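User: Design a sequence. Structure:
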């Protein structure tokens, strides 16, 4: 059997336009998602946060660093949705302008985790044997250390700032990606269409790139959405502890920390930025859970 014949067999196993084909499955999944109002609300909120992170001027016209002592510690209202801080700065504006730092740090952390985790998981699952044993024992060691504690240790060594925090969080969530990728590669590697491609003469490299990786991506993508929320919490936590961007930068964790001494007299300083972050993480978790249900 030639390689071309094997490819035809594999591609015919999931016809694009037949019931059960990839296009039909995609259309059916989109219809299911459109019927889930909570999923739509979560997606819209996440989209709003991302858009406001890169274009905050679309949602506020105020300066996040301009002080107004006469407006210090005013409660939420029509003029200031989240109220003002102790320097009279608009808190809603500072939350929006603080989004780019946290969102960009989250993206850096996810890229690091995806590249390193996918690489380790693919090598471990594809080659197996001694390579698999050695790599997975190293991953087990990292999994035994709480993620935030590991990130805290790394950022202490690297220094303060948004990028060191992002690198530390990215390294801390690598083990989850490596484990998930390895499990999917081991599962897909034994499926009939992979064996058919190999029987047709396809090289292992071609099988890996054409068949194993595309069909192993689903659970990894779901984990990426879920770990985006984990990364946001970890980055905000490290910023809260003072490892993030230096003042007067308006990072989410820093904003929450700035208001912790005024919880009785000015509760909105910590509560509203915290609620903004919590809704984002809950939205990402719900999106991840919904996508996971579709992939089952």
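Assistant: Done.
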């Amino acid at each position: 059997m030639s390689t071309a014949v094997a490819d035809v067999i594999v591609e015919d196993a999931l016809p694009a336009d037949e019931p059960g084909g990839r296009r039909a499955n995609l259309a059916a999944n989109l219809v299911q998602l459109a019927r889930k109002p909570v999923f739509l609300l979560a997606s819209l909120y996440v989209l709003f946060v991302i858009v406001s992170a890169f274009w905050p001027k679309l949602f506020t016209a105020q300066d996040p660093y301009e002080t107004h002592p006469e407006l210090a510690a005013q409660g939420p209202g029509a003029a200031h949705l989240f109220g003002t801080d102790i320097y009279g700065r608009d808190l809603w504006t500072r939350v929006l302008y603080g989004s780019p730092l946290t969102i960009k740090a989250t993206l850096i952390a996810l890229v690091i985790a995806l590249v390193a985790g996918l690489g380790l998981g693919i090598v471990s699952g594809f080659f197996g044997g001694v390579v698999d044993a050695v790599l997975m024992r190293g991953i087990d060691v990292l999994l035994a250390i709480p993620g935030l504690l590991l990130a805290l240790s790394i950022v202490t060594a690297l220094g303060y700032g948004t990028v060191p925090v992002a690198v530390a969080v990215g390294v801390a969530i690598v083990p989850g990606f490596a484990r998930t990728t390895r499990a999917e590669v081991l599962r897909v590697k034994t499926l009939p269409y992979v064996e058919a491609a190999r029987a047709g003469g396809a090289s292992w490299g071609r099988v890996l790139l054409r068949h194993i990786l595309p069909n192993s991506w689903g659970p990894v993508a779901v984990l990426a959405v879920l770990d985006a929320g984990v990364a946001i919490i970890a980055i905000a936590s490290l910023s809260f502890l003072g490892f993030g961007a230096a003042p007067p930068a308006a990072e989410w964790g820093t904003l929450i920390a700035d208001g912790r001494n005024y919880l009785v007299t000015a509760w909105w300083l910590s509560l509203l930025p915290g609620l903004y972050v919590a809704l984002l993480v809950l939205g990402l978790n719900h999106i991840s859970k919904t996508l996971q249900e579709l992939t089952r």
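The chain has twelve helices and no strands. Residues 45 and 280 are 7 Å apart (CA to CA).
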